[in-house]
């Protein structure tokens, strides 16, 4: 059993393969005792420091206000002298913000319950054990239920909280974090992901000093700027060594990840809905569920944490049937044509793409209403027959007749002031009573939290997808939310989005579905519950992509990262790069094309044929394998390298990109990772060096990569085990024993 409650000692102990998480009930309080590498004892001594004096002059040794200020509460609440960052703040009808949570009862069971209306991790009964712990405040009637679902094999604890109003009056929740983690000591770094449009999810690592550090979004979505991930590790933890904790919120709206170091060397970390601009009225008898927070523990550095996240999400979060399937190589017309296209143009792209081995045409923005630019027609989801002559079905049939699948772009949450929809329903937009709502990319946001608006959005999506043989949908969202009228709308908006996408995946289970937000602003676990892939960034420059994809892979599997080969010079950076390099870098994601195939050279078309073959050869390995970072151009300024190793360790794919050539240098030594020390490997593609060699040699002695003339040159090296076996097995085979 991975969760036990010791009645006598009043201890909860949650064990995974490598970690332990311990809570104790002391004088009615639930305290966090330990989280870290697995330990054998139930209660590891007096880690709660209950017998130590609080730092206040007083006659008794337990002056309560001071005690509360240092006690590691499992779910700290506002108002009773825990002056650190709190997980819960609730206002009573009288305007008091106070809550004194005391332990009440618990339940432990196999399996895990879904969270109503929200994305949630899932699994078989035997894979998960869950504990529910109730805390109550008898004065206000607040009941807090803490949920812990242990995925033992993966070193994961998934947490969430339900807040129930058991009293008679109305309560206002002002803060309800999904998880709080309290760690002893002060030597921690936090790792977070930040960026901007076109350069999402760059890894940032910083030490936490006295005070508070917050990584958050109040943009109505996860955002380009910040991601709902926080890694925690000691200053000395590296890619491959040391203890690392990863928190990731299963949510697609405003979030906050908070790190705080307080007096007495205690560090507190939290993750949940952003308390800023949030409030939620809870009437008597009502409950509020927070989103889930995934807590991963790794004893093998940051890389170990990433691999656990990848395994968890591939198996226990992504529901799509495509999670295990080869996805068709698609060509998207956005950067090829922008808004300037018609059926004829699309069909000519489809024909030539088909000849190169591409399997699906995706028609992007601009096919509906009178949209020839980004300034009109969102909301008017009927086809523009001036561009798509004969209608959508005819186009799809014609594309299918070429032997290509067809996919489409939509942006269901948005409305253009220049649209028939706006003429009819100007009151459907999110806005306050006082100010004219601000435009962003010439558009406003539909308030899908309103029933009729949500139903309209759903009808548009459903009618479009039902009107022809559409096999892929790109669901876009090209602006962030402002002019928010109250504290509830942002969360209600996210719930409505989830409801729409839930309907979508239920009604169209065979649809390949990709979420997107002006590039990669909605890359979060919430979205992965609905779509197996998310557009990673509008920036497809392979050099930029190395950093974006590296940061994204901190917690999201490669199979989820929308990645395309673009044209050169790149539309965002203007950088010129070799076609081969663009293909090799896009291979670390879903793989597709976003260029005008009718305008490229015959040599480049030949390269596409080779690349689509390459994709099908390696897609299973990339999709299901273990990912290892070897070197980052962000750290060394010259080159990047990463590997994917199959679960049975019999094959591996090494990507090396020499971003910047260097004058007068010899070959560069790369130490491979993740192989089996005793297995014997050969270089099957992309490398001329001597082989076979043991995994131990490849990892400890390394291989040399010779300098390549020029910048942005890439190598893809495929390594496989000789006769698929261990050295001793091969010897045995040779000797005929
Ligand atoms: C933003 C997306 O990221 C692009 O790929 C493209 O679909 C545009 N929106 C279309 O408006």
Features:
737 residues, alpha+beta, binds (2R,3S,4R,5S)-2-(hydroxymethyl)piperidine-3,4,5-triol, 10-stranded antiparallel beta sheet, 9-stranded parallel beta sheet, single chain
How does this model look, in words?
The protein has 737 residues and is α+β, with helices and mostly antiparallel strands. The chain is 21% helix and 31% strand. The protein is built from 15 helices and 39 strands. Strands 6, 7, 8, 9, 11, 12, 14, 15, 19 and 20 form a ten-stranded antiparallel β-sheet that branches. Strands 29-28-27-26-23-22-21-31-30 form a nine-stranded parallel β-sheet. Strand 28, helix 10 (542-552) and strand 29 (561-562) form a beta-alpha-beta unit. The longest helix has 23 residues, at 602-624. Bound molecules: (2R,3S,4R,5S)-2-(hydroxymethyl)piperidine-3,4,5-triol. (2R,3S,4R,5S)-2-(hydroxymethyl)piperidine-3,4,5-triol (DGJ) binds at residues 334, 364-365, 409, 476, 478, 516, 518-519, 535, 538.
Give the count of helical stretches: 15
- The low-confidence runs, each spanning 5 or more residues with pLDDT under 50, are none
Rounded radius of gyration (Å): 27 Å
Query: What ligand species are in this complex?
Result: (2R,3S,4R,5S)-2-(hydroxymethyl)piperidine-3,4,5-triol
Percent range for β-strand residues: 25-35%
Span from first to last CA? 43 Å
Helix content: 10-25%
């Amino acid at each position: 059993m991975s969760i036990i409650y010791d009645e006598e000692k009043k201890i909860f102990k949650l064990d995974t393969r490598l970690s332990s998480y311990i809570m104790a009930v002391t004088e009615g309080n639930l305290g966090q005792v330990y989280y870290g590498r697995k330990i054998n004892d139930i209660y590891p001594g007096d880690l709660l420091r209950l017998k130590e004096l609080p730092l206040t002059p007083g006659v008794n040794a337990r002056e309560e206000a001071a005690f509360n200020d240092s006690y590691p509460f499992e779910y700290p609440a506002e108002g009773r002298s825990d002056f650190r960052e709190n997980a819960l703040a609730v206002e009573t009808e009288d305007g008091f913000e106070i809550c004194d949570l005391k332990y009440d009862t618990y339940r432990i069971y196999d399996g895990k319950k879904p969270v109503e209306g929200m994305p949630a991790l899932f699994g078989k009964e035997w894979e998960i054990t869950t504990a529910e712990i109730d805390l109550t405040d008898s004065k206000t009637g607040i009941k807090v239920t803490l949920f812990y679902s242990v995925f033992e094999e993966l070193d994961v604890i998934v947490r969430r909280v339900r807040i129930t109003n058991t009293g008679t009056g109305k309560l206002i929740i002002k803060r309800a974090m999904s998880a709080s983690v309290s760690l002893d000591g002060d030597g921690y770094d936090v790792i977070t992901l930040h960026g901007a449009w076109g350069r999402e999810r760059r890894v940032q690592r910083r030490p936490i000093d006295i005070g508070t550090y917050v990584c958050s979004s109040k943009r109505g979505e996860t955002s380009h700027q910040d991601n709902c991930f926080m890694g925690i590790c000691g200053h000395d933890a590296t890619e491959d060594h040391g203890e690392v904790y990863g928190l990731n919120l299963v949510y697609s709206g405003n979030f906050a990840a908070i790190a705080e170091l307080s007096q007495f060397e205690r560090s507190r970390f939290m993750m949940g809905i952003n308390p800023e601009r949030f409030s939620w009225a809870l009437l008597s008898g009502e409950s509020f569920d927070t989103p889930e927070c995934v807590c991963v523990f790794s004893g093998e550095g940051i890389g170990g944490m990433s691999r656990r996240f990848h395994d968890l999400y591939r198996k226990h979060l992504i529901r799509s049937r495509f999670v295990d399937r080869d996805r068709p190589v698609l060509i998207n017309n956005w950067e090829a044509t922008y808004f300037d296209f018609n059926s004829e143009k699309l069909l000519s792209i489809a024909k030539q793409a088909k000849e190169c081995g591409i399997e699906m045409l995706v028609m992007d923005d601009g096919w509906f209403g009178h949209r020839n630019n980004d300034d009109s027609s969102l909301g008017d989801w009927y086809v523009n027959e001036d561009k798509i002559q004969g209608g959508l079905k005819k186009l799809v049939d014609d594309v299918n007749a070429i032997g290509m699948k067809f996919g489409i772009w939509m942006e269901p949450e948005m409305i253009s002031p220049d649209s028939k929809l706006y003429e009819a329903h100007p009151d459907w937009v999110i806005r306050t009573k006082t100010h004219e709502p601000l435009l962003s990319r010439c558009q406003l946001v539909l308030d899908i939290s309103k029933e009729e608006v949500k139903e309209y959005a759903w009808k548009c999506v459903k009618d479009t997808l039902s009107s022809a043989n559409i096999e892929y949908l790109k669901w876009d969202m090209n602006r962030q939310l402002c002019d928010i009228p109250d504290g509830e709308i942002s969360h209600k908006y996210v719930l409505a989005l989830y409801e729409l996408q839930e309907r979508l995946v239920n009604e169209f289970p065979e649809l390949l579905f990709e979420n997107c937000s002006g590039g990669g602003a909605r890359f979060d676990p919430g979205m992965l519950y609905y779509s197996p892939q998310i557009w990673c960034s509008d920036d497809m420059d392979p050099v930029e992509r190395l950093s974006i994809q590296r940061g994204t892979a901190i917690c999201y599997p490669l199979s989820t990262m929308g990645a395309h080969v673009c044209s050169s010079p790149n539309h965002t950076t203007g950088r010129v790069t070799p076609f081969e390099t663009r293909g090799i870098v896009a291979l670390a994601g879903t793989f597709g094309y976003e260029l005008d195939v009718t305008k490229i050279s015959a040599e480049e078309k030949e390269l596409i044929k080779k690349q689509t073959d390459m994709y099908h050869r390696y897609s299973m390995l990339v999709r299901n394998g273990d990912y290892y970072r070897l070197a980052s151009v962000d750290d060394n300024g010259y080159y990047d390298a990463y590997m994917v190793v199959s679960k049975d360790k019999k094959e591996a794919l090494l990507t090396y990109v020499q971003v910047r050539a260097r004058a007068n240098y010899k070959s560069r030594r790369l130490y491979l990772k993740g192989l089996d020390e005793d297995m014997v490997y050969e270089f099957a593609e992309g490398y001329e060096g001597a082989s076979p060699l043991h995994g131990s040699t490849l990892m400890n002695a390394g291989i040399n990569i010779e300098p390549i003339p020029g910048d942005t040159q890439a190598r893809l090296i495929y390594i496989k085990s000789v006769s698929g076996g261990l050295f001793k097995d091969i010897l045995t085979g040779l000797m005929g024993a």
